[in-house]
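Session log. Operator J.P. requested a structure for one protein chain; no other inputs attached. Running the standard single-chain path with token output.
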Amino acid sequence: MTESEAASLYRLMTWLSPSFPVGAFSYSSGIEWAVEAGDIRDAASLRDWLAAMLSEGSGFCDGVFLVQTHQATVARDLARLREIAELAAAFVPSRERQLETTTQGRAFIDTARAAWPSPGLDEMMAACVGAIVYPVAVGLVSAAHDIPLPPVLHAFFHAVVSNWISAGARLVPLGQTDSQRLLAALEPVVSATAARSAAASLDELGSATFRADLASLRHETQYTRLFRS
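Structure written below.
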């Protein structure tokens, strides 16, 4: 491993670790309502729900936004970057999911800039008018630090899926071993979704997880809640 590769791995492991302070632990992406409604009852139903969210829902769309942001940042295409950031912010299906992804995006950028400043990052950020959502923030910062796209995409999906499983484990509830079995079972879905996201254009954006979108909307009025989304 070269010095540059070691630095890239170190930063990715840090930025997409559960300990990185973006507040991901306080959001469930609608999973809390799905458990309350009985859609998620055990490890098997949680696995199916997350596989759909990842491959046919917000997971795939966020992957496309990350890829497109990374590529635009590398090319220093400010107009393209602005277009991607605006579309990504408008693509979120509910108010709580908007809060979730924009809050995490801002925290990710602020913390990464404070600890790992990059000369070109401020210029790229200035091109993004308005709120920066989480996948755009990850694509922007990683590209500014010259970290290759494939490991960034896989690390991002691992972080997202791990947080979903953590939320599900607390709500169903599940034990630690079951949580790891879920993470292992979703590994091929992560790989396939990463490959599909890397090859997709913005024209191919779309999702078919209507129940998950409804869950994120109905969570807003859920009576008892542990999570913010």
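Operator note: Residues 48-218 form a domain with the Urease accessory protein UreF fold (CATH 1.10.4190.10).
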